Amino acid sequence: MEQVRYEVDGAVARVTIDRPERHNAMSFQVMQELGEALDGAKADDDVRVVVLTGAGERAFCAGADLGGIGSNAGPTRMHEARGGPAALFKALWHLGKPTIARVRGYCLAGGFGLALSCDFVVATEDSTFGAPETDIGLWPYQITVPLIRSMPPKVALDLMLTGRKVKAPEGERMGFVSRLVTVDDLDRTVDELAATLAAKSAVVTRWGRNAFYRVVDMAGEEALDYLHAMLTVATHTDDATEGLAAFAEKRPPKWTHQ
């Protein structure tokens, strides 16, 4: 891969958009390579947490950059390319492993949606978030879903209608920034959170996280019926048996991730 770096350290995979000169904007190639990286992390049983970030100090991701497709791509190709961000959002939701967006600098438009499609957003105090598409005669259609899953819908609508940008402290108050940190504390906080998540049972985390994303758009009664059934299924895993035994015996559990 040329525009995305994929590195694995123990149980943690780090996926880095590597276009700092373009504020890590998502070209068509970046979106393809991000998809490949996420597929690789999903298939690797040793990877239990994914950290998504942008190279440099100026931006996590400034949004989609479809200029690399070419002016002669044609309407069908352009339509498919424009679906790249939505495909990445879905890939993150269906990854089956906890995801952390490590944000420093600008996090805008499609990049905003990319960060909010992760389970956690760890952001420095000087980071800037926004959906400024209306300022250039567009609407942030695809990022609507990750936004309204991460904050009250009318708050998301405010950001989309006005196009205003907000700093990370306001993002924390809105509910979409999970951890607000100084620049000096960014990597330590991300590493500690990743280590905490990686120490959990992989099967418990995967099934529970999948259940969360499945019920988030369900009606209440339908969701409760599904979750009731999942609880019974989950109690038959080896790690549920081990976890209950370890609790009774007052010792740390030894996960087999089964």
Helical content (DSSP H or I, runs of 4+): 40-55%
Q: How do the strands of the widest beta sheet line up side by side? A: 1-2-3-5-7-10
At CATH level 3, the topology of the largest domain is 2-enoyl-CoA Hydratase, Chain A, domain 1
Do you know the CATH architecture of the largest domain? Alpha-Beta Complex
Going by helix content, strand content and strand pairing, the class is alpha/beta
Low-confidence stretches: none
The number of helical elements comes to 11
Sheet bearing the most strands, described?
Answer: 6 strands, mixed
Report the portion of residues in β strands. 15-25%
| Whole-number total of structural domains | 2
* Principal-axes shape call: globular
> What's the helix-strand series?
EEHEEHHEEHEEHHEHEHHHH
- Mean pLDDT, to the nearest integer, reads 94
Question: How many β-strand runs?
Answer: 10
Termini distance? 32 Å
Classified in CATH, the superfamily of the largest domain is: 2-enoyl-CoA Hydratase, Chain A, domain 1
CA radius of gyration is 19 Å
CATH level-1 class of the largest domain: Alpha Beta
